[in-house]
Amino acid sequence: MCGIVGYVGLRASAPLVLDALRRLEYRGYDSAGLAVLDHDEAGQTSLTIVRAVGKLDNLAQAISAVELPGSIGLGHTRWATHGRPSEANAHPHRSGGVAVVHNGIIENHLELKEQLISEGVEFKSDTDTEIVAHLIHRSFQVDVAGDPEQALRAAFRAALSQIRGSYALGVVSERTPHMLLVAKSASPLVLGIGDGEMLAASDIPALLSCTRTVLFLEDGEIATLRTSGVEIEKLDGTPVTRAPKRVDWSPVQAEKGGFKHFMLKEIFEQPRAIEDTLRGRFQLEDGALAPNELGLDLSRLALKRVVFLACGTSFHASLVGRQLIEKYARIPAWAELGSEVRYREPVFDSGDLVVAVSQSGETIDTLHALEEAKRHGATVLALTNVLDSAIARACHGAFYTHAGPEIGVASTKAFTTQLVLMLMLAIELGRQRRTLAPQRVSELQQELLGLPGQMRRTLERHSEVLEVARRWHQAAHMLFLGRGLSYPIALEGALKLKEISYAHAEGYAAGEMKHGPIALIDEKMPVVVLVPQDHNYEKTLSNLQEVRARDGRVIAIASEGDTRVASLTPDVLYVPKTHDALTPLLLTVPLQLLAYYIADLKGTDVDQPRNLAKTVTVE
Question: Which one is catalytic: 2, 210, 311, 395?
């Protein structure tokens, strides 16, 4: 999410920072800005900030109307999380002579904002980032004597000690015209070492036009950048020594983080995306969703039914969400294809909570369907990845994933973060309706918090998926079978394979196999069977045996330690054994990798498959 670029050197910083921001455009953004420090011969320092909504061309046009000769610059492209896309919400944010850019989410921003307002601070934006600027400025004002550089670093450390959450931060100040400060915690930040210049960026591509010598900042570290070099220290002031590294990636390779395709990179980003989606959403004292997370009060609704509206991959997520709502909240739930709803006579009323699910928030069919639901008095909640998107604006409230921009057309991390939010919604409804005991709420939340680690373990087995893909990448047809919560994942696995490899694939509920699909099975037909050790295990194992009895070739996705499945087929991909509600998320990973590796082995255009668009905004 977002892009940060900082520069300290001898060259004019504005064009250099703007060019570096362009190298981060692949990360996605909705606004951008630049702060430049200019230190003249008379010893006077000025801080100029220019911001613009939309693409970097808009920022470039705004910059062209202003003189920006300074050699210290701090730039940012913003992907909105708090506050809609606007010039006021674009970074950098300023308090006095201090300017700040930030990637990440400050979990306790509401608490800090209330505190600052009570002290007379006036906010000019809706962002959580502006809080950091005010915290630094407030502490910096206290110590006006002595060394201003030491005072700024102390103020920076004081501000960091008060915030909770994830951050990559860049700070400049009029009182310290020869340095730039950066710090990180759970958000990426890399330093570039040039000849008489230093850079900082949220990703390597931004640095490559200036240097290929880099230092990776670690969590809980602060770096001071000057033309003479960099000093790194921990938050307590302890110095850190770290050797730089040489990067030999091309700019295109760097954008992809060294991965061959954006899709593969985004598959591996899923643990981080889930961590960002979970961070700060629950209140520790009672397990409730944090205030304002949805933009509406569920407890005020006289709910009779929950209806999910979605298309494509989001519809598959909704099929999981439907089961989770019924299981934990004990409310009737349904999932509807947005493209079908408006062309019949659907029944909605004031007792419905309609959840409109869309990665982009712009899917036209889902947008029209939710408008139909609103006309009939339903309460409509958006579940999307893009703040202030069309669907979010059209709904009564919005529940946002924090997956970050997804470049690959075939959705991966947006899908799994949608599943996370659906489980969170089911838990919250169950908590409010008392169909979940407090202890059960706490247990489910703890399971969720452990999910990113389990997903990382699953990704570590990627080479095993590649070996299976090598054996089966020439198959013209493939079936995917699953039961219960695994059934929608079978549908999603088949869709992924179709989207990017162009092989014919179909997903079925395993219990439906005898009602038709079994006729397709022969010695040439690979059948992917999702057989985790959940309450459907024995039934699904029986379906697997039926495939074998007809000479079908089984690729099993099973729980770690399952020796029964291993005795039935040589092609077994394992996922960690976990809570039933989380199993769909882990099963998804080997299916994504299987589709990716098959497509790559076939040589198709993985990131931009034929005939497909990332966002469907026309019927």
Answer: 2
Q: Where are the beta strands (DSSP E) in 9-105?
A: 31-39, 45-53, 72-78, 93-95, 98-103
Active-site residue (options: 55, 327, 374, 614)? 614
- Provide the domain limits for residue 278: 263-452
Same domain, 123 and 201: yes
Residue that is last in its domain, among 452, 475, 498:
452
**Pairing verdict, β 333-337 and 305-310:** parallel
| Structure confidence at residue 280 (pLDDT) | 84
- Whether residues 155 and 48 share a domain: the answer is yes
Region of 391 (left: φ > 0; alpha: ψ -120 to 50; beta: rest) is alpha
Residue where one domain finishes, among candidates 420, 452, 484: 452
For residue 613, what pLDDT is reported?
Answer: 67
CATH number of domain containing 338: 3.40.50.10490
Name the one residue in this structure whose structure tokens are 């036009």: 209
Model pLDDT, residue 519: 86
Question: In angstroms, rounded to a whole number, what is the distance separating the alpha carbons of residues 509 and 514?
Answer: 10
- Does residue 58 sit in the same domain as residue 172? yes
Catalytic residue list contains 614: yes
**619 located within any domain:** no
For residues 469 and 569, membership in a common domain is answered with yes
Return the amino acid letter for 396.
Answer: H
Residue 557 region by backbone torsions, left for phi larger than 0, else alpha for psi between -120 and 50, else beta? beta
- Below-50 pLDDT ranges, the chain: 617-618
- What would you report as the CA-atom Rg of the chain, rounded to the nearest whole angstrom? 26
pLDDT, the chain, mean: 92
User: 586 and 455 in contact (C-beta within 8 Å)?
Assistant: yes
The per-residue DSSP string of 472-533 comes to: HTT-SEEEEEE-TTHHHHHHHHHHHHHHHH--EEEEEEGGGGGGTGGGG-STT-EEEEEE-S
| Nearest alpha carbon to residue 456 among 270, 587, 188, 261 | 270
pLDDT for the residue 78: 93
pLDDT at 553: 92
Please say if 210 is a catalytic residue: no
Q: What is the pTM of this model?
A: 0.81
